[in-house]
Amino acid sequence: MSYRYLLHSAIYENALLRPRHPAVRFQKEELTYDQLAKNSAQLGNFLVDLGVKRGDRVGIYMNKNINSAVAIYGILSAGAAYVPLDPFAPIDRLIFVINDCQIRFLITNESRKDNLKEIIEKTTLEGIIGIQNDVEINVPSYSWNQIFRHPSSQPSINLVEQDLAYILYTSGSTGTPKGIMHTHRSGLSFAEWAVQTYQISSSDHISNHAPLHFDLSTFDFFAAAIAGATTVIIPEGITKLPASMARWIQDEKITIWYSVPFALIQMLERGGLDSKNLSSLRWVLFAGEPFPTKHLRNLMKTLPWARFSNLYGPTETNVCTYYHVAPLSEDSDEPIPIGIVCENTEDLVIDTEGKPLPDGQIGELLIRGGTVMKGYWGRPDLTEKGFFRRSMFGYCEDIFYRTGDLVQKMPDGNYKFLGRKDRQIKTRGYRVELDEVEAALLSHPAVHEAAAYPVPDVEGSNLIEAAIILVQGEKLSEDDLVKHLSGRLPNYAIPAKIVISDDFPRTSTGKINRRELQERAIKNF
Amino acid sequence: METQMIINNFILNELAKGRKKTINNDEDLLAEGIIDSLGILQLVAFIEEKFNFTVPDEDVVIENFMSVNALSSYLDQKLAAKH
């Protein structure tokens, strides 16, 4: 096999190696590697004919379907970068993203048609791909039928591995989305590492649970393509129904599952896992936020044949550390570590002054290596702030990404995750880790999920407020919980108010939306 | 008919508040993002209280919760069995 340096090369290689092997499946539809390569090449050639140039941005704005994979690989084949948009995002955010990185064309489908008119009016979009010609829309629109009449041989575009491959927008701390730029190299470095580490082969069925705008999806598509495996896209509707989700894993014979912990906890609680045959599962991978140990232990007991692995890394670095979960002891709810750094990744821990710290000391984790992003789109200021430069031999420098996460290396070499640097707040003059408060809340057996967040008080300092969800059928008073906390936290770290809720607001990627909780608390204050 | 109206009203006025003007009884509630995972929990709680029976986890599946029509025929069936 030749040296691979572009993300889409893998599907063209597999089209030769295993043309009839399924590459991607969605409900009853399936594309073999031969079909995926041909359709992607057709879309690529079509985009080139429209005038799309190397490095241009093309958006993907649709509910997931079989053509999601064609969209990704077709855009890459044209030499452009794909920008996945959250199909359920508020329209103002979509307009911001489209204008921010000057998306020229949008690949969409009928499901999003209602919003298109307004988006087109307020952006410089030049055309819409994936729907029939429509008089309502003021720019040219092109159907898939038109696209699939184009030549099916890979467009010949001169690309190098440093070329832009995709931009993922995340909410910045100020609320303005920022576009994280990944290159073919940074995407491939991660996907190739994943194939090796999880021994992925062509017989694997890899779930795609994450939305395309969430970085977990790059594993689902790119690692599968490198291994010649099958990506099975879970319909969005099913992701909201734990019992349907569990049955889907059974019916699709998923061998590698990858999602945020929340989806797994939902299945554990309400998915009826015992009554399903999930023996196909080889690996259960999770990332995005810490997996509360008591739920993880129960899940591991329910699926004793599967192995579990925690992947850690901000979107800016893809994944940078991993931990294959060792058997969990019954009597400790100590959070699992985030593990050791991936191959081709260098770690450094610094203090608040930027001085490197010896192993064992608590500090901010810095990461350098093949998987790190190119920078933030159009924001050299943020990019500069996000990187740390270490002078080498006085005449060159190493560039590390600052994760903003606090870690501590343990004697066995695994990193312990201690929370976000900016989740450390001051209350009444004391420094408090909000993640520690959450861990203490979760250590109560009746607490199912917990979130702690600061609420400004009248004196200009912060009070800590927390929201919890109780385990189904359990009852607990605020007083009892405070009693439980007082044995685990210093007095100043005990939340001033604890709200018991039915559920939390979540981000589109399934994480607890603490900012929304905080805003609600400030409103009620 | 009545069941459909009760469910349609609850989804429109509580779960899709401000986001939708009307909901078709056969509209796909989940794929279109009208209801999220939190919404499902609220919907189940509402049904349990309104119709006075427990919805088992195993019944909270796509076939029963896909649309207003699907949910009301599931409910009618369950309620008929109860009497």
Describe this structure in words.
The complex is a heterodimer of chains A (525) and B (83). Chain A has 525 residues and is of the alpha/beta class. Among the domains of chain A are: 167 residues, Rossmann fold (3-Layer(aba) Sandwich); 77 residues, Luciferase, Domain 3 (Luciferase, domain 3), CATH 2.30.38.10; 97 residues, GMP Synthetase, Chain A, domain 3 (2-Layer Sandwich), CATH 3.30.300.30. Chain A is 29% helix and 27% strand. Chain A is built from 15 helices and 27 strands. In chain A, a hairpin with a 3-residue loop joins strand 20 and strand 21. The mean pLDDT of chain A is 92. Chain B has 83 residues and is mostly helical. In chain B, 58% of the residues lie in helices and 0% in strands. In chain B, helix 1 packs across helix 2 and helix 1 packs across helix 4. The mean pLDDT of chain B is 89. Chains A and B meet through helix 9 of A and helix 2 of B.
